[in-house]
User: Fold this.
Amino acid sequence: MATSSACADNIVLIGFMGAGKSSVGRELARRTGRFFLDADALIETAQGEAIHAIFDERGEEYFRELERESARWMAECVRGSIISTGGGMPTVVERLRDIGTVVYLQLPFEKILRRISADERSKRPLFHNAAETKRLYAERQSIYEKQAHITIDADRPVEAIVEEIIQKLSAS
Assistant:
C-alpha cells in the first residue's frame, strides 16, 4: 500500500481506551499526508454533545447504533484517511475491514491505567468501575485481534509506533 496516495485505502486504528489511537492517528496522518478522522469526535459533532452525555441521556445501545451508522458512512464515503475508532466500535461493527486496513494498537491494561488520569477516566462512561473496565478489556482483546490486519505493540513512543505501521503497510 502506498502511504502517500491521497486516495489510497483508509487505515483504521483500533484498541482499548487509552491505547494511543488519537495520538498515533494524528502523527500517522502527518507522516503519510492523509486526513485524520476521529470516529468519536465525528459522533459528537453530529449529535452536538459529548460521548458521556450521549451515554448518560440515551444509553450505551443508542451510542453503539451511532457507531454502526458512522462506520457505514465511513465505508461508503471516506478514502485516503487515518481513522481512530472508539474502543468499543470493533465490538459492534463486525466488518471494520470494509473501511480500510485495520491496525490494532495493543497495550497492557496496567499501562492504560497509568496513561489515563483519574480526571480523564471520570469522563469515560465505561471507565467508572476499574474491575468492570478490566473485565471489558479482557473481553475485547480477542475481538481486536480478530478484526486486525496488523497488531502493533503500543507500549512505545508514538514515533516508533508510526514508523512500524508505515513499514508493515509498505511490506503488505
